[in-house]
Amino acid sequence: MRGKVLEFNHADTTGLVSGDDGKRYRFAAADWRGAIWPQPGEAVDFVADGDAAREIFPEGVGGGPMSWGHFLLSLEGRIGRQQYWLRFILPTFVVSVILGVLAAIPLFGVLDILYSLALIWPSIAVGAKRCHDRDRSGWFLLVGLIPLVGAIWLLIDLGFLRGTAGPNRFGPDPLQGAAT
């Protein structure tokens, strides 16, 4: 469920969230999944459990709208297969093919190299978020270092298998409310 942080008491590390259903839910610091303490008015995604909020994620870390900056540069959160393929793999592939064809022109050969270098961190960040959707640590990407088998394993695991249904330790399900 989506909502907003109403208050957070730093002394006893408890707070209050208002859900989209109009109800108020109390929470403890143990349920907060953000990198920094919550701020009043901050948009969140959480699991309602009676009158308590559990598994509280700031928007953009889990199922909320994810900005391009967060998508390409942050290691936090989860993304589904559709975002992985359509927002990262397909555009990266198209640009790589175009630059590869134009590499016959010396200037474009340099651009191809610079583009490849610029993709290192975004590839790690997007891959880590995809690992998180499968309830794996981002370190799982190191499987790709195994010759041949590693690349095939990552392709199948990250590209074709569905992520964990429902929230996991990395955030809410990115498919929550969408057709699976």
Overall mean pLDDT stands at 89
Strand content: 15-25%
Biggest sheet, spatial arrangement of strands: 3-2-1-4-5
Number of domains: 2
Cα separation of the termini: 18 Å
User: Helical percent range?
Assistant: 25-40%
Helix-strand category: alpha+beta
Summed up, the helix count is 5
Number of strands: 5
Order of helices and strands: EEEEEHHHHH
Overall geometric form: elongated
Low-confidence stretches: none
Summarize the main sheet. Answer: 5 strands, antiparallel
Description:
- The chain is α+β, with helices and mostly antiparallel strands and 180 residues long.
- The protein has 2 domains: 2-58, OB fold (Dihydrolipoamide Acetyltransferase, E2P), CATH 2.40.50.140; 68-159, no CATH class.
- Helix content is 36%, strand content 18%.
- It is built from 5 helices and 5 strands.
- The chain has a 5-stranded antiparallel sheet, with no helix packed on it.
- The longest helix has 21 residues, at 81-101.
Describe the secondary structure blueprint for this structure:
Layout: E1 2-9, E2 14-19, E3 24-28, E4 43-49, E5 52-58, H1 68-73, H2 81-101, H3 106-118, H4 120-133, H5 149-159
Antiparallel strand pairs: 1-2, 1-4, 2-3, 4-5
Key traits:
5-stranded antiparallel beta sheet, alpha+beta, 5 helices, 5 strands, 2 domains, 180 residues, 18% strand, OB fold (Dihydrolipoamide Acetyltransferase, E2P)
